[in-house]
Design brief:
Layout: E1 2-6, H1 13-24, E2 28-30, H2 31-41, H3 44-54, H4 61-72, E3 81-84, H5 90-102, E4 109-114, H6 117-133, H7 144-158, H8 160-167, E5 171-175, H9 180-197
Parallel strand pairs: 1-3, 1-4, 2-3, 4-5
Helix pairs in contact: 2-3, 2-4, 3-4, 6-7
Length: 198
């Protein structure tokens, strides 16, 4: 099963990706983790990424795409993977399509966690309060201003992917405002329907 999780920051993509990893034994490919791993392993692409990051610049699409391509060629991705936080733009989505086509594989489904923006802000602030109460560090982006900025960025760059994948017949929405377990159940139902179709 090869899938993409879509949804604004705070929608619960990370939590659901972790559950998919546990339930299906397929890896979660997060670009941040992959970048760090490639830099640490000193692969060709990792060295290029490190030079860019050391210069304080943003890693280009070309480098991110190369890192994703390198990662999906690894043995643990043979039965599928979850792309989380990538693609973020229409250009990256085209690159993912080309990258998979070159390998003779395709995406099975794109799952959108549909959420209410106002409720999301509440969810983020609650997460910050809970972390504080537990004496844990609060995530830098768990404050209203930073979150608002990330949300705008999401709608500007990433939300167009919803229409893009809908047009390809790959998009399935689940209610991201439901309880965590309910969302997990809805995702499982989508995957079951998808597996039957293929």
């Amino acid at each position: 099963m090869r899938l993409i999780l879509l949804g604004p920051p705070g929608a619960g993509k990370g939590t659901q990706a972790q559950r998919l990893v546990e339930n299906h034994g397929i890896p979660q490919l997060s670009t941040g983790d992959m970048l760090r791993a490639a830099v640490k392993a000193e692969t060709e692409v990792g060295k290029r990424a490190k030079a860019v990051m050391d210069a304080g610049e943003l890693v280009s699409d070309a480098i991110v795409n190369a890192i994703v391509a390198e990662r999906i060629d690894q043995a643990d991705c043979a039965n599928g993977f979850i792309l989380d936080g990538y693609p973020r733009t229409l250009q990256q989505a085209d690159s993912v399509g080309e990258m998979l086509a070159e390998r003779g594989i395709e995406l099975d489904v794109v799952i959108e966690l549909v959420v209410d923006d106002k409720a999301l802000v509440g969810r983020i602030l609650k997460r910050a309060e809970e972390a504080k109460a537990a004496g844990e560090p609060v995530r830098k982006d768990d404050n209203a201003e930073v979150f608002d900025e990330r949300l705008r960025e999401y709608y500007k760059k990433t939300a167009p992917l919803i229409g893009y994948y809908y047009a390809k017949g790959l998009l399935q929405g689940v209610d991201g405002m439901a309880s965590m377990n309910e969302v997990t159940k809805q995702i499982a139902a989508v995957l079951e329907r998808t597996a039957k179709k293929s």
